[in-house]
Model the fold of this input.
Amino acid sequence: MRLFKSRKIYYLYNPNTLNYERVYPSAKDRFFVVLRHLSIGIVIGIGVFILFMYAFDSPMEALLRKENKLLETQYEILSRRLDDALQILDDIQQRDENLYRAIFQTESIPESVRKSGFGGSNRYEHLMTLSHAELVIATTKKIDMLRKQLYIQSNSFEELIGLGKNMEERNKCIPAIQPVSNKDLRQTASGYGMRLDPIYRTLRFHSGMDFSAPVGTDIYATGNGKVIFASWKQSNGNCIVIDHGYGFQTLYGHLSHFKAKVGQVVTRGEVIGYVGNTGKSTGPHLHYEVLVKGRPDNPSKYYYMDLTPEEYDQMLQIAENHGQVMD
Ligand SMILES: [Zn+2]
Done:
């Protein structure tokens, strides 16, 4: 008996009929064949599925991934822009503190109040579960900081606007220009604060600001007021003091000669005398002081009618970097 197998069709040799006769598989055989094919199919199917799942994103996943990346980039850009905005606000705050609030003689708003944080450590807890939590929280914090500081700043301006009303007369009197013509700022010699003494070479407090200028240069009254002193002073040489009212006085030292007299009422910009080299002085210059309630204040706070914000910054730098006074 021989069994031939061809294309899964089975034949069996029948010696009686001398023929090959086809043999049909039993139902059991058929069942196992189907089962085997099915199992192989399922295994291959699962394999291909897993492969695709790891190797390729579904269109939706790819879209979400792309969008996620875009959002992350956008957050980074926003974060950087917020840094810029905070920097600009910082400049405004400094100007508010050193110029505007000084002019109006209002109490300063301390840095600790302007930049105080928020209470409660779990303010951003709900963001912790995000995949880019650190970036999102940092950016949100910056927005909160900006909002709070802007609120304080806007209150400060509100207060100053209130003070500004009915201040026209006061504004005419308060020193607000430079005492010599100094458009290109080349006349700025030395600022207010601790400086090197020109004669003793030791650090000493300089109570005013020095402007170097040739002998005979016009000196202006820096605000409306009345001349209360025009005479010789031990260290300041020929010296003029103007009382501007509202607690303000200005002092002009080392003059070559006077133009204004004691008791004279002067207006801002009026020539009161001329630059000289009298008294304790190392060269022709004007020593200029602003006194508030009898105490010297930094004169650089009182040039706001004369200088643009850029020029003001430039002047401060020149005045700061000149270590040596002319006295
Ligand atoms: Zn000086």
About this structure: Helices lie at 27-55, 59-103, 111-114, 133-164, 168-173, 309-321. Residues 206, 208, 210, 287, 325-327 surround zinc ion (CB under 6 Å). The CA atoms of residues 282 and 326 lie 5 Å apart. The mean pLDDT is 88.
